[in-house]
Fold these 4 entries.
Entry 1:
Amino acid sequence: MRAPRQSTKETVAGSLLLAHPKLIDPNFRRSVVLMSLHNADGAMGVVLNRPAGKRLAELSGEFALTALAKVPVFRGGPVQPEQLVLAAWQSRPDGFRLHFGIEPSHATELLAENGTHVRAFLGYSGWSAGQLENEMKSSTWVVADVPGDLLSHPQDDSLWRAVLGREGSEWRLLAGEPEDPELN
């Protein structure tokens, strides 16, 4: 099987990190992480496929009467899980645009624009300087481009299977394995 694709860019910001099938850490098992920052000081992103089963209005009454009331909430990662992070993304003809860590007022403005999706995340995924690079050398992550149809997929465990499967036939085979090998 071919090794996970290593990014040829100096940064994986704006890409997806897909957990390698052998990764068993419950924080990241079969996760899809949208990377918003990656530089010499560290890296940061949010897990896209861990829905919390709530909307912003259920999380906090301050959103109940706003345009953000129905925005879904996800578990963004193990770092500061009580912190609320708002993100918006837009698929445009000139490419994918990410707005990360935005204020509620800016999220409301963006939500009014056609083709904009807003998500709320409790916590985030973070790596200190050099930590992500070491994990990538250990084949912990598969780097993938953000597919144009990312938001058309359910934002749950099936997202990992769908995006990893696009990385080649070997990855498609591994993505299709059951959680419990005895069910194979």
Entry 2:
Amino acid sequence: MNMHHRFETARASTGPEPTIRKMLSDLVLACQQIEADIATEEARAGIHDRSNPRYPILARSLIERYGNLKETIATLEKRVTERPQHKLVTDAA
């Protein structure tokens, strides 16, 4: 008896949504950690003004990463909330 086929069918029926939701959760946690790291670096340097030329390079790179993660989160949230534009057509035969 080949159980592998059954597991694939069950997994396919649930869709990618649980995986995407887990990714979203992980990305939100990563953003929170980056926010804390930025605040720590600003406090260490004593510079909070991002336009200051002496603003820490580490904080600048963390801000860029933070922005990229926020864009990724927005894209994944859109994917989860969008309804499928088409439905599978099955043969009636």
Entry 3:
Amino acid sequence: MPKAPPYTATMTSIADLRKSYERAELDESASHADPLTQFDQWLKEAIAAELPEPNAMTLATVGSDLRPSTRVVLIKGYDAQGIVWYTNFESRKGKELAGNPFAALQFHWVELERVVRIEGRVEKVSDAEADAYFASRPLDSRIGAWASPQSQVISGRGVLVANAAKYAAQFLLQPPRPPHWGGYRLRPDSWQFWQGRKSRLHDRLQYRIANGLGGPWVRERLAP
């Protein structure tokens, strides 16, 4: 009889992992009518709880080949206009957004048993907004924006180190914002708030724009 694959025991233990979600609840009567206000409350609670990187969010985009891709980025601002982050326009995500300006974001605050999902159209922030944020970054991060040809194949880490040294010598303490680097803003047309509950009967509230025409937000419960 052939031996079982060496990973069988590990896979079995993963399949047996269980957790009962019992920290909180999300009721329609206790949630905010405006999804941005609900998001603001939850994000502030995640920060107050001192979770590791509560500002980290997964960004999903779709390329011209219809293959989706995800990566983790950091939220850098949010208001009634949308959710903002910054990156290299020549990266895979930048190229995919140039061809298909729709994306999805997800926050997962594990310790609070909460997930927020946001979908919508993406646009670039203004040059003035990008310049102001870039100037606020630590010097090493500003140099790094020049040094990394993001998503491109490189021969080794030495390429990054050499590039960083070159641009540090060139710009000294005042590196300008690279023309290939800036911000994106996702304008939400759909929000979902998920709160883990016991027996997998989770709370899941969706907010969508009425008639898809810029009307008021409609809040409704989805089955988990």
Entry 4:
Amino acid sequence: MKKLLYLSACFFISLSGFSQINSTTGATPAYISNPVIPAFTVYKAPDSTSFTKENLHKRKPTLLMIFSPDCGHCQHETTVLIENLNHFKNTEILMFTWLPYSDMMSFYKNYKIADHPQITMAWDFKDFFLPYYHVQSYPTLVAYNKYGKFVKAFSGDIKMEEVWKALGNK
């Protein structure tokens, strides 16, 4: 009888341990539950000036790209994005990284981002975008329409044609 009582107690104690899961795991991501471009502050290349949501052009679709300068997929997608900028003529493109500013600047210079005025590259010094968009792989692209409403998120190997179509571009 003592063994049964002991086993029952162990069972209930272990059961309560398994019930202590993170309740936010299944929660709806913020960018879905609040489907507008969030307020943010970043430092843009090349001069480290502050850039916020208020600096975005009004009535233009916005494409956010969360990337890592040392990620092969990110490097490839940046090349493909630049090759297809004609499909994003009316789109504001913001590229963000959380890695050190010096890494971002190397990427900025290597891909000649300064030659493409519709692209703003910035350092996410507060690490805001990774958790906000639940980034699981790089790059992650997030499309917003001209009214600032969420359209679609893309990650990993991305077909640029799907991105420009989601934004209503041809």
